[in-house]
Amino acid sequence: MNRRIRLVMLLLLMGCQVVANPVRITDLDRTYDVFGASQMLGVKAGTVSIDDLLRNPATYQFVNTEKQRIKPYNQQLGYWFRFELVNQQDREVFLQFIYAGTERIVVYETAGNRVLALHRLGSLQPEPDQPFRKSVQFCPIAAKNGQTSTFYVYMEGIYTSALPIFALSVDKLLERQHRSDLFYGTYYGFILIIIVYSLVMFIRLGEWGNLRYAVWVLFIGLQMALFRGHTSEFFWPANPGIEAYATALAAITGFLHVLFTLSFLRLRIQAPTFYKIGIGIMILYAIGFVVNVANVSLNHQLGEQIDFVPLLALFEGLVSIAAGVVTLRKGFRPALFYIAGNLFFYVGILVFLLYTFGRLPYSFWTFESIHLGVGVEILFFAVALTYKVNLIDKQRKDAEQEKIRLLQENERLVTEQNTMLEQKVQQRTEELQEAKQRSEELLLNILPSEVVEELKQTGQSKPRRFERVTVLFTDIKNFTQMGEQLSPEDLVNEIDYYYRSFDAILSRFRIEKIKTIGDAYLCAGGLPVAYPDNPVEVVKAAIEMRDFMLHNQQDRVARGFRHFEFRIGIHTGPVVAGIVGVRKFAYDIWGDTVNTAARMEQHGEVGKINISDTTYQLVKEHFQCNYRGKIAVKNKGDVDMYFAEERVEKAVF
């Protein structure tokens, strides 16, 4: 009974070592898919050895590869693959590992419980005696003439879910290798030509966009070479560990792509919002670079989840395409090629992602989709840059031709009609100068000179905020009752007399008359050119205005005429000043400072200059001021007010 039990257990144990679906090599002209016929075991990196698998096979449960998905970018996991090969030919057969980015590949060829051959491959541990290139890994198979071998392949540092493994003859291997050499040789040659062409264009035209483009193409070419392992093969074969900084290189490449985009699409002018977003993305790329370098230096102790550069690259792509669409709609036609290049690149990424996650089968088009997308992107960017340079050159030449044409036309007209038109031209010129002078004088009478100059240069005047402006309000007491006693003509003449006098007083100061509203007169100091002593100047002008009104009042009373009585209010604070609308320009000011100045006037007294506490603090060293106490003001509560009197003469020692 015990012997039967042991026999059953032995059969079960043997059954556990049988690999399903052995690959039989019968035709050397075929390429055999080994990955699809393999079984997979996911383990914690470095915890399971080949001895463990051979001595205790029942302990480890391999499953078919299509039933378990690889988790790429997880440095903590390792994967064992098991498959069986039956070589029925008498010639040597090779295993080919297509994806070169895997950091560690160890291939064990076994028979029974013995290891027949051991091969160490991978991007970080190249095989010293490998007869073929390192960028695509190979190892020979010992089995021949109907021999059967069970292979155990251990991998770490896997960066994709698709790991094509093939068995093929040396002739088939060399044929595929030659095709790969032809493709990559052409690809990198194309990149080199683009770089040289861009540098020549930069030297010839001095256009910095060509230099930025050449540097970006260099780094995107390095990234594509690193992606296939060509960098470790040709640039730093003695230091394969540099490959671990792939994300840092991707961050540099993305940074340069954004820099090229900002310059090429002229986003600072055409789309300022996208320009600010681009600057933010560049900062994130710089952070991604630092994080990747630190993480690799610490042996990935920070974890893989901190690698946000791939997601940032996808986001940047969407932003770049949107920015291209915006500039294209604004008439920048080279943006069309820029958009097309980005679309091809991201289509290539999409195809490759579908391939790596098993949604698309392995083929030249799926495996090289990113390289093809980048190649088309580089080509379209080169066309877009050339188009932009030609467009700028054409615009420059057209402008020069138009200038020459106009000069020739003017010369012809002058030659034909010089005698007849000279006097008329001179007369017309004088008229235009006079009209221009009158227009400018009229405009200067309406608007400040600084605003007029801004309108002449840009066609518009933007409102500006001034932090310290002193606003003066004055109006006539009992204006309505006075108006009922005078005819409209007399009323207007009286007001005009006073306000002309006020204008004359302001002309001696740096104070800007803002407007008159009925009987109210509004002016302000400290704009449109800010100066710190504007409170003193405004109070000075207010005293002269008050003195004028009092003197005029005495004169009219002496002659038995009616007279107006004025109140003056002053407040200092921030305002927004500018012009609004497109017709009947008027320079105006807005803000609570204006309202407070009006309240100062309303709560003042006839023949007095009522100033706020804010203004008082700025002028108290220059004028005698009498404190009125706190006075209730609508919507402002109790407000400190002062009557400003004569100037304070400072003692001279």
From TrEMBL:
It comes from Larkinella bovis. It is found in: Membrane. Belongs to the adenylyl cyclase class-4/guanylyl cyclase family. The chain crosses the membrane at residues 182-203, 210-230, 242-265, 277-296, 308-328, 335-357, 369-387. InterPro entries: 7TMR_DISM_rcpt_extracell_dom1, 7TMR_DISM_rcpt_extracell_dom2, A/G_cyclase, A/G_cyclase_CS, Cyclic_nucleotide_synthase, Nucleotide_cyclase. PROSITE patterns: GUANYLATE_CYCLASE_1, GUANYLATE_CYCLASE_2. SMART domains: CYCc. Residues 389-445 form a coiled coil. This is Adenylate/guanylate cyclase domain-containing protein. It holds the Pfam family 7TMR-DISM_7TM. Keywords: Coiled coil, Lyase, Membrane, Nucleotide-binding, Signal, Transmembrane, Transmembrane helix.
